Amino acid sequence: MKELVCIVCPKGCRLHVDEENGFAVTGNSCPRGAEYGKNEIQNPTRVLTSTVRITGGAYPRCPVKTDRAVPKAKLMDIMKELNGVTLSSPVEIGQVVLRDAAGTGAGVVVTKAL
Questions:
Q1: I need a labelling partner for 83 at 20 to 30 A (CA). Which of 25, 40, 61, 100 fits?
Q2: Which domains does the chain have, with CATH numbers?
Q3: Euclidean distance between CA atoms 46 and 70, whole angstroms
C-alpha cells in the first residue's frame, strides 16, 4: 500500500493506494482524489516549468513550460533538450520553443513576452 498526499485541491487528503487490489484508493474526499491517486501510482505526470537562454533582450533567461503534463520519467530528457535552446528577442507568450519534447508529443512554450 502506497501513501500519497493529493494535490488536486488545497485540502491535501492523505490517500492510500492499494496496488494489490486494483489500485483501490481510500482517504479521498472527492472522486478527483481517487483518480489522482490511481494515476500517480500507475503513470505519474507533471507540467515542466523551466527557463532557456535568450539573447538581445533585457534578461538572460526566458521562462517556458510544457503545454501539457508529460511522464515524470521524461523530465530530465526534456531538460537536456532545453539546455541546447537559445532564443532571440523578441518572443511572445505561447511561442513554441520545442515540438514533441523528448518524444512525449508535448510542446514547450514561452510563458512571458520578452
A1: 40
A2: 2-42 (no CATH), 49-110 (3.10.530.10)
A3: 5
Distances from the Cα of 32 to the Cαs of 15, 17, 23, 29, 54, in angstroms? 12, 14, 14, 9, 39
Can you name the residues that pair with 52 across neighbouring β-strands?
62
Q: How far is CA 36 from CA 13, 31, 70, 74, 107, in A?
A: 11, 9, 15, 19, 23
| DSSP H or E stretch at residue 32 | helix 31-42
